[in-house]
């Protein structure tokens, strides 16, 4: 099987910075009053990981912004495909490719301008990719990047494609209700990753994927108490806070399971891992997952405080940030762990470098 790995990563963060003082003190006070008036039911922890998660959630509950300090937001007139184009051009340049060499384009646009339209085709035209390049939207919420990586790896190994461009974006600011405390957690961004054949022993070594449909309403975009096509404004919100708490409670245990499985499949020990990246859904998820999986010695970066939650763009941003800070170098063994509402989750092991 051809070894397939990452050839280049590009990012784009809008210039507009939204800090915590963007929300008025009266709105923030309202969040805290609402939270103290209706404290969530707290289940008894069933595992050490769940006990650690509950402790972190209890500590974080005192912060109305849940650990976020800044987030980037698109200015008026900018669209998700504008961000995707900028990130894609940066990734292609880093990979040192002619864009005509790309014959597979996988895009996750979390907040597209229109429904029922393949927005990957808009980006395809913007980039001037070949007409015989496969262009498609891929959807697994915040897990999409790891899914894209597996799809691209398999298609390249099978000879159906040679170079792939994987793109992830979120324009969550377009769907936020500023009066909802959830609005403080999200930012806008785009990332792009070029994937192709690499030297033997480099690239993706193993990947495991899981699906669980028990919690479909943890985070959705719809009219409140309705569907996206009902009358009213579509907003990003948690339609079932109880489901959301259960997902948070189980997340680290799920990480333990898939990380152990992917390390076993790759034939490597946790102590050999040089770098660990996790989707940045909370400021504590990376730390607790490392502690519970024996990956404490691995280098890592945290982006949540500076960007908020970026859906499927969060892991590529971690990789780009680490590479730029020289925390990630050639031959490093990397573990990626992520999950997305709906829900899907899993882990990937790769050897960094082309």
Structure explained in plain terms:
By secondary structure, the chain is an alpha/beta fold. It has a domain at 203-351: Peroxisomal Thiolase, Chain A, domain 1. The protein has helices at 25-37, 48-60, 80-95, 120-127, 144-157, 241-266, 285-293, 304-307, 314-324, and strands spanning 4-12, 16-19, 70-73, 104-109, 134-137, 164-171, 188-197, 203-211, 220-223, 234-237, 275-278, 333-340, 344-351. The strands form four sheets. The protein has a five-stranded mixed sheet with strand order 1-7-6-4-5, with helices on both faces. The chain has a four-stranded mixed sheet with strand order 8-13-12-11, sandwiched between helices. Strands 2-3 form a two-stranded antiparallel sheet. Strand 12 (333-340) and strand 13 (344-351) form a beta hairpin. The chain starts with a strand and ends with a strand.
Short descriptors:
globular; Peroxisomal Thiolase, Chain A, domain 1; alpha/beta; 9 helices; 354 residues; four-stranded mixed sheet
What is the helix/strand order? EEHHEHEHEHEEEEEHEHHHEE
| pLDDT < 50 stretches | none
- Secondary structure class reads alpha/beta
Q: Superfamily at the CATH H level of the domain at 203-351?
A: Thiolase/Chalcone synthase
Largest sheet: 5 strands, mixed
- What is the architecture of the domain at 203-351 at the second tier of CATH? 3-Layer(aba) Sandwich
| Spatial sequence of strands, sheet with the most strands | 1-7-6-4-5
In the CATH scheme, what's the topology name of the domain at 203-351? Answer: Peroxisomal Thiolase, Chain A, domain 1
**Total helical segments:** 9
CATH class of the domain at 203-351: Alpha Beta
Number of strands: 13
- State mean pLDDT (0 to 100 scale): 95
What share of residues are in beta strands? Answer: 15-25%
């Amino acid at each position: 099987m051809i070894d397939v790995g990452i050839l280049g990563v590009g990012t784009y963060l809008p210039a507009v910075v939204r800090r915590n003082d963007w929300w008025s003190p009266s709105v923030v006070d309202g969040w805290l009053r609402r939270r103290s008036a209706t404290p969530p039911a707290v289940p008894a922890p069933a595992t050490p990981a769940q006990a650690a998660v509950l402790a972190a959630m209890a500590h974080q509950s005192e912060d109305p912004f849940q650990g976020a300090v800044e987030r980037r937001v698109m200015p008026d007139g900018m669209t998700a495909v504008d961000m995707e184009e900028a990130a894609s051009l940066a990734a292609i340049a880093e990979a040192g490719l002619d864009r005509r060499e790309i014959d597979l384009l996988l895009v996750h646009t979390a907040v597209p301008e229109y429904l029922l339209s393949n927005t990957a085709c808009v980006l395809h035209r913007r980039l001037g990719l070949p007409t015989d390049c496969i262009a498609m939207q891929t959807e697994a919420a915040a897990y999409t990047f790891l899914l894209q990586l597996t799809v691209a790896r398999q298609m390249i190994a099978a000879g159906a494609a040679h170079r792939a461009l994987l793109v992830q974006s979120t324009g969550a600011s377009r769907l936020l209700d500023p009066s909802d405390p959830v609005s403080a957690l999200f930012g806008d961004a785009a990332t792009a990753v070029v994937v192709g054949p690499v030297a033997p022993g480099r690239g993706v070594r193993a990947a495991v994927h899981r699906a669980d449909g028990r919690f479909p309403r943890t985070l959705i975009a719809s009219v409140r108490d309705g569907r996206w096509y009902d009358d009213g404004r579509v907003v990003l919100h948690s339609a079932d806070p109880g489901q959301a708490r259960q997902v948070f409670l189980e997340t680290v245990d799920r990480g333990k399971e898939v990380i152990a499985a992917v390390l076993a499949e790759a034939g490597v020990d946790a102590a050999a891992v040089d770098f660990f990246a996790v989707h940045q859904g909370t400021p504590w998820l990376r730390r607790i997952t490392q502690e519970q999986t024996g990956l404490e010695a691995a280098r890592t970066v945290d982006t949540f405080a500076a960007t908020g939650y970026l859906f499927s763009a969060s892991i590529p941003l971690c990789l780009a940030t680490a590479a730029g800070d020289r925390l990630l170098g050639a031959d490093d063994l990397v573990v990626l762990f992520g999950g997305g509402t709906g829900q899907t989750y899993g882990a990937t092991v790769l050897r960094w470098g082309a």
